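[step 3/7] inverse_fold.run input=structure_tokens len=185
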């Protein structure tokens, strides 16, 4: 399969020990609380199913009106949310995406040219390398330090900055640590 796709990505990654153990536990029927599950229909969350189904029956849902920046009413709702919190932002300045992966792809294209570098925290979102690779951008990592809580290692971050670096990714809250940035960070 690797020969079918571009050489931008390493398609033949070996499975890591944690993935192997997880698969073994699932096959054995062990109860698993998967904190990486992002599909709410698979995560065991309860949600208003009848109300959601009723919304799908709304005739407005059968009309296709593409909105590349996101549906205007949704962007207005986001602007209103931030306005109530003292952060005035115009709906016209908001871009909604279908996922964080799509948003990162847009940002990598916007901020970096092929061959440029993006700095990402370590540990962090495991798809950064693939997303950047698809945009022909290279990921370099800066370490987070842990002393009972996660922190940005500013000395290591500064040392990682080179003329090829076009952006520094800061994830808040961080995936997979769950840590939040502190005010001083």
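[step 3/7] decode complete -> sequence:
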């Amino acid at each position: 399969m690797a020969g079918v796709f571009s050489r931008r990505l390493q398609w033949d990654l070996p499975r890591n020990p944690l993935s192997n153990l997880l698969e073994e536990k699932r096959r054995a029927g062990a109860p698993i609380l998967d904190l990486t599950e992002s599909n709410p229909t698979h995560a065991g969350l309860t949600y208003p199913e009848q109300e959601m189904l009723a919304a799908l029956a709304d005739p407005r849902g059968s009309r296709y009106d593409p909105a590349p920046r996101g549906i205007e009413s949704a962007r207005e709702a986001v602007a209103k949310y931030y306005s109530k919190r003292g952060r005035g932002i115009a709906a016209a300045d908001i871009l909604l995406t279908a996922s964080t992966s799509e948003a990162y792809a847009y940002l990598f294209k916007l901020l970096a040219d092929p061959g440029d570098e993006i700095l990402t925290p370590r540990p962090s979102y495991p798809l950064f390398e693939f997303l950047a690779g698809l945009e022909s951008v290279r990921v370099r990592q800066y370490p987070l330090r842990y002393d009972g809580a996660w922190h940005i290692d500013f000395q290591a971050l500064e040392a990682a900055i080179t003329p090829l670096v076009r952006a520094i990714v800061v994830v808040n809250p961080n995936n997979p640590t769950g840590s939040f940035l502190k005010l001083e960070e």
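[step 4/7] annotate
DSSP finds six helices and four strands in the chain.
Residues 72-84 form the longest helix (13 residues).
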